[in-house]
Structure formats: C-alpha cells, structure tokens
From TrEMBL:
InterPro entries from the UniProt entry: Ald_Oxase/Xan_DH_a/b (IPR000674), Ald_Oxase/Xan_DH_a/b_sf (IPR036856), Ald_Oxase/xanthine_DH-like (IPR016208), AldOxase/xan_DH_MoCoBD1 (IPR008274), AldOxase/xan_DH_MoCoBD2 (IPR046867), AldOxase/xan_DH_Mopterin-bd_sf (IPR037165)
Assigned keywords, A-Z: Molybdenum, Oxidoreductase
Alphabetized Gene3D superfamilies for the sequence: Aldehyde oxidase/xanthine dehydrogenase, a/b hammerhead (3.90.1170.50), Aldehyde oxidase/xanthine dehydrogenase, molybdopterin binding domain (3.30.365.10)
The protein, known as: Xanthine dehydrogenase, molybdenum binding subunit apoprotein
UniProt GO MF annotations: iron ion binding; oxidoreductase activity
Native organism taxonomy: Bacteria, Bacillati, Actinomycetota, Actinomycetes, Pseudonocardiales
Aldehyde oxidase/xanthine dehydrogenase a/b hammerhead domain sequence ranges: 24-128
Species, as recorded: Saccharomonospora viridis (strain ATCC 15386 / DSM 43017 / JCM 3036 / CCUG 5913 / NBRC 12207 / NCIMB 9602 / P101)
Length: 698
C-alpha cells in the first residue's frame, strides 16, 4: 500500500491559483509573452489533397513591404529526418493532405504576413486522392499496436460460437463521427533563438499540455541536446489532447526563427487552420455483437472496429479497450483495422479510445436489456465482473454498481416506464437513458520529478514542469504539496509550466495529478526526512516517485454512470436534453470545485458528441468544409440547462498516495450512449450513429 497522504488542504474547494490572472488578462498566454521585436508567421496551405509541389512563386509576397522571408519546401532549413513524419514540415515537395503547410510567410505584422501568404502562388502536380472510410475497402490493415501501445486485437474463447448459441443476442453496427478539438485558445507558438549557430539556445513559449514533451520533440527535430531548448507554458486555454503531442506549427515557428537569426517569431494558428494540422478524433465504425442467456448474462462480447489514419503517419485509436474490460463474458474479441487515407493524421481527443469505444457497447447493452426485458441498470449489474476480464487482475477498487445505484436514486430512475415511446408531454416525446463510463488510472512512476525548496519566512517553493491546460491542476498540486509538507495552502508557491523545472509527464490520459502529485509527495517526504520540520532557507530536495509495483498487481480504473433525459419533438424530431446527471467513482477528490468543472465539462462535450459535433469531410476535395465555429456545432448554454456531476466516497489505497483517480476524461465517456438510449426510450427509434440528427428519429 502507498503511505496515504493525511489530508487537510486536499478536499477543500480552493479557488484556482491562476484564476485571477486568467480572468483579468494578466496571466500571459504563449502569444502574449513579451519578446523584443517579434515577427509574425502565416502559413500557406495546400489546396490539393494529394500530389507534389512543383513551384512556389513568392515574388508578389516578398515585394510586399514588411515581409521578412518566405519559407518553401525548396528553401527551408533542413530538419532531422526519420523521427516523426508529421513534424517534417517543409522538408519535401510531397502533399499528403489538403491543408498541409506548403509555405510560410514571416513579416513585421500579422496582417502583412497573412496578406503575403495569400499572394504566394503554389503549383502542384496533382494525384487522385482517397478520403473515404468504409468497411468494404480491400486495403484495410492491422496496425502493430493501438494507442499508446495496446495489443491490436484480443481474443478469449469463441465469441462467434457464443453468439450462434445465444438465447438473446444483439448484432449491429455503430458509428461515431470525425470530430475536432476546439479549445478556447487556439494553438500558438513563440520561438526565440539566442546566440549563434554552434552554441545557440532556444526559448519557446507554447500553448501546450506538456513542456517537456514539446521540448524533446523540438530538440530531436533540430538535432539539439534537450538542455539547449527551453519551453515555457504557465497559462494554457484548453487542449483536449490536441496540445498533448507536438504538431507542425511548433516546428515551423522554430524553423522560421532559425532562418531569421535572432528575430523572435510568433505564430497564432487560426481557428480554421486548427482543422488541418493539430489532430482530431478519427471516425469509427464498430461492428458489435453481444450474446447472452435469457436473463441477460453475457456469454460473448465482440467489437470489430474500422477507423482511419493518414498515409504519412499512423495513429490507431484504441477504440476496443472498453469492450475488453467493462463486462464479464467468457468469450470476447476485439479487432482494430485501419484505412490509410489522404487526410491529416488523427490524434488524441478527450478520452481517445474510451470515448468512441463506449458508445457502441453501451447502446448495445441497452438493446440487450430491451431484448431480455430487463432494466438496463439491472442488466449491467448482472454483468459485473469479479476481476478485470482483460487482465485477470483484481481491481484496486471498482464501484460501478454504486454509481449506477446512486445515480438511479438521484435521477429518479424508479419512475421510468419500462417501454419505449410511452411518455408524451404536449408536442414532445419524453425519454430517459443510462450508460456506463470507465477510464483507466494511468501511472508512470519515476517519469516525473518535483523539487521542494524552503525560502524562509514559512514559504515553500514547489516546482515541477507540469501543465495546467485549464483543468485546475496548478491548484490541486498546491493542495497536495501543502499536505505533503503539512503546511497551509497559502505557504506554497507552486511553479509549473517550464522545462527549467523538474521533468513532468504530459497532461494527458487524465494522469497529471497521479503522476505529478506522486512526485510532489515523494519530494516533500524526502525533504522532511532530510531537513525536518524546521529547515533553513535554501534547503532543497528533488525526487521522483518510486515504483510501488501496484500497476502490475491491480487493474485500476475510474467508473461512472450517466443518466440523460431527452425531449424529442413529435413533428420536427428536434432533440433537447433538459437533464444530464452523472455519478462517478473517482477515488479521492482533490478539489471539489475544479473536479466538478472537469466532470461537467466532459459531460457537456459528450452531449456535443451526441447531438452536435461532426467534421464534414468533402470527399471531392478532401477537406473539412465546416472548419470554423459558425458551422462546426458545439452546444451553447441554452443546449445544456442542467448538467449535474456527483461522486461517491471511494477509498483506493493503491492508485497513489492521494487516493485520487483521473477526472479529465471520464466525464465524456458514455454520455453520448446515455443520450442515444434516452432518444430510443422517448421515440422507440434506435439510432446507432452520432451525432443524432432530427431526420434520424422521424
Ligand atoms: Mo487527453 S486526449 O489524453 O489530453
């Protein structure tokens, strides 16, 4: 067992330590970092989806007053090759997707850069492109592994035989849409080179979920030792995974600054450009089979998944993971197959894998409940596993059933009519639905370190290169540090977001608090062991968390139960969601205020997946046509009148010293299925595709 943290500040709903700076505009985001004599970059994007650049005519652009340079595939400085094809910006004439960066202008002002970029004439030799995802393609292939390193397929027993012998069965295809991360703050990078070539060092202000991740990528691509690259990101306006990995804009900005020798370069990616080169969620096609006895006890479960990737780089979303682990069934199969298309490479978007991968099974379970005449909550309880079906390991804690029961009580599930299409209120069909949520506890002990320094006068400086992308991590870490040092919250000066601080893992996979908090607790304990409770000013200790072996021994997951009430207009099919309610089992909650915000935000994004978000890929041209917030729909406040997030009391002594599980992503998992199930309950129409549009229910 971890020596658990004694809590005084953990559990208190402290205001965000960065809240004041953010809302008053005094906390500098990457683009606002003051640098001397900045220049501004604007990219030129490919207007064809496949082919080669044959000529770039920059004469009109360079003639414009204020233009400093035009970078092209033919004149850009060379990068290291073979590490990451996505980052090899302007290194070849090859066009892999429409919207790819094929040139860039740097100018004295952003306006001149943009105008000049419009004047750059690019000639292409065009090849036919192919962007159509379909299960019928004969070139679907099996990737080596799925994100981040899971086995591609899984098989236990004989799920097809179980299906053939089943007393009750469900077989259907479910699809989820291509969607794009749209954090409030678009991606921005500011690059400053210092000194001349041989000994030059680099400072990068970046909107990122991981300064060390970005710093290492830049160092690799430019052939620098990591100590020559400093990445700074104290304030970040959201990311949802799109800022968790490096993308071409960061490399391009550094490349431009290298070219300009000493002149800092700023690049603010526009909202429209975000639809081309910072990642998105792959669409998925999931062929799901459930086999059960007459009482709804699963005997088999399988999910055969088809999704897309890019030709120039592979990203294989781990959509089958929830089917592997959520419910007990002797016979189980998952497969992932990919189509490599002429599109940008997909990447992480809030709960990659679990989010699309819980839509199909959780709607299928609703269908099975109907087929068996069993309440959907009772059906799930009947299929609760003793140990993790995927690994056979015992759970560190599993309180899914508690979430279902607590949610049913709070939501008022008992009053629900069992049959679909049985409640009408004026012009509206009324229905309710439920679905499960799950998200793993991802741990990398030893990969993050923290330092504790006593500054005198009761002040402790605690440092770690973590990122707060708007989650509240900065505040939660301050609370953890206070308890680890047994001092009040106000005595801690928490420093994050700089590669000059001890190394930290990326703010991804809902793992930040686990990994960084464990490092802070380790460092604080060593500090106290060495210096006691009465240290001298300047005393300092840096440490990483050690591996307690619990990852090997236990299956560790957070769980949740999501409930939705929907209204469906009898004439127009318009769908409204007057009420969402989630109950989660997420270990100890470090800060109820910021935790609730994470869960409510996730659920709202799940509603968005259910009813609004879809990137419309025009097959003729190979690009997303609704590439701005006017046409890419996300919910407004009027779309989400009531979203309630609750959690049960859960003690898990194995996950980390705080007893906390990740909360950034679980809120979006299962929400869309709960809404789809409620739509069925309202109307009797089973929709297996999100987003659900009006025509689907008429
Ligand atoms: Mo999250 S998609 O792992 O940043």
């Amino acid at each position: 067992m971890n020596r658990s943290l004694r809590t005084h500040e953990v559990g208190v709903d402290h205001e965000r330590v960065d809240g004041w700076a953010k809302v008053t505009g005094t906390g500098p985001y990457a683009y606002e970092q003051p640098v001397s004599q900045p220049s501004y970059l604007h990219p030129v994007q490919s207007t064809v989806a496949r082919g080669r650049v044959t000529e770039v005519d920059a004469r009109a652009a360079t003639a414009l007053s204020g233009v400093l340079t035009v970078l092209t595939p033919f004149n850009a400085p060379r990068l290291q090759h073979g590490h990451d094809a996505e980052l090899e910006v302007l290194q070849s004439d090859e066009v892999w997707f429409r919207g790819q960066i094929v040139a860039a202008v740097v100018a004295e002002t952003p306006e001149v850069a943009r105008q000049a970029a419009d004047l750059v004439r690019v000639q292409y030799r065009t090849s036919p492109h192919d962007v159509i995802l379909s299960v019928d393609r004969d070139d679907l292939y099996k990737p080596e592994s799925v994100n981040p390193n899971h086995p591609t397929d899984s098989l236990a027993g004989d799920p097809d035989a179980a299906f053939d012998d089943a007393a009750r069965a469900v077989e259907a295809t479910y699809t989820t849409a291509m969607t794009h991360n749209n954090p409030l703050e678009p991606h921005t990078t500011v690059a400053v080179w210092h000194g001349d070539d041989a000994t030059a060092t680099l400072t990068v202000y970046d909107s990122t979920q991981g300064v060390h991740t970005i710093g290492e990528a830049i160092a690799t691509m430019f052939g620098l030792t990591p100590d020559r690259v400093r990445v700074v990101a104290p304030y970040v306006g959201g990311g949802f995974g799109s800022k968790g990995r490096p993308h071409p804009h960061e490399i391009l900005t550094v490349l431009a600054a290298q070219r300009l020798k000493g002149r800092p370069v700023k690049f603010a990616v526009t909202r429209q450009q975000m639809f081309s080169f910072v990642g998105y969620r792959t669409p998925t096609i999931q062929r799901m089979r459930l086999a059960a006895d007459v009482d709804g006890r699963l005997t088999g479960i399988s999910n055969d998944i088809v999704e897309l990737t890019a030709r120039y780089k592979e990203f294989a979303e781990q959509t089958g993971i929830p089917t592997r682990t959520m419910y007990a069934a002797t016979n189980r199969r998952t497969t992932h197959r990919l189509a490599a298309l002429d599109v940008p490479v997909p990447s992480w978007m809030r709960a990659p894998g679990e989010c699309p991968g819980m839509f199909a099974p959780e709607v299928a379970m609703d269908e099975l409940a109907e087929a068996c005449g069993v309440d959907p909550i009772e059906l799930r309880i009947r299929n609760e596993p003793e140990t993790d079906p995927d690994t056979g390991k015992p759970y560190s804690s599993r309180n899914f059933v508690a979430c279902l029961r607590e949610g049913a009580r709070r939501f008022g599930w008992a009053d629900r009519p069992p049959l679909a299409r049985s409640r009408r209120d004026g012009d509206w069909w009324v229905g309710t639905g439920v679905a499960g949520s799950t998200y793993p506890v991802l741990r990398r002990p030893g990969a993050s370190a923290a330092s504790v320094r006593y500054d005198g006068d009761g002040r402790y400086v605690v440092s770690i290169g973590a990122a707060d992308l708007g989650t509240g991590a900065w505040t939660a870490l301050t609370q953890i540090a206070a308890d680890a040092l047994t001092v009040p919250f106000s005595d801690i000066d928490m420093r994050i977001g700089d590669t000059g601080l001890p190394p930290a893992t990326v703010a991804g996979g809902s793992s930040g608090t686990t990994n960084w908090g464990s490092a802070i607790v380790a460092a604080a304990r060593r500090f106290r062991e060495k210096y006691g409770d009465d240290p001298d000013a300047g005393d300092e200790y840096t440490a990483a968390a050690t591996d307690d072996g619990h990852t090997e021994r236990f299956a560790m997951h957070a769980y949740g139960a999501q409930f939705a009430e929907v209204l469906v207009n009898v004439d127009t099919g318009e769908i409204r969601v007057p009420r969402l309610l989630g109950v989660f089992a997420i270990g100890r909650v470090i800060n109820p205020r910021t935790a609730r915000s994470q869960l409510v935000g996730g659920m709202t994004m799940g509603l968005s997946m259910a009813l609004h978000e879809k990137s419309v890929l025009d097959e003729r041209f190979g690009f997303v046509v609704n590439h701005d917030l006017a046409e890419y729909h996300i919910p407004t406040c009027a779309d989400v009148p009531s979203v309630e997030a609750h959690w049960i009391t859960e003690h898990d002594p194995y996950v980390n010293p705080m007893g906390s599980k990740g909360i950034g992503e679980i809120g979006i998992v299962g929400t869309a299925a709960a809404i789809a199930n409620a739509v069925h309950h309202a109307t009797g129409v089973r929709v297996r595709e999100v987003p659900i549009t009006n025509d689907a229910v008429l």
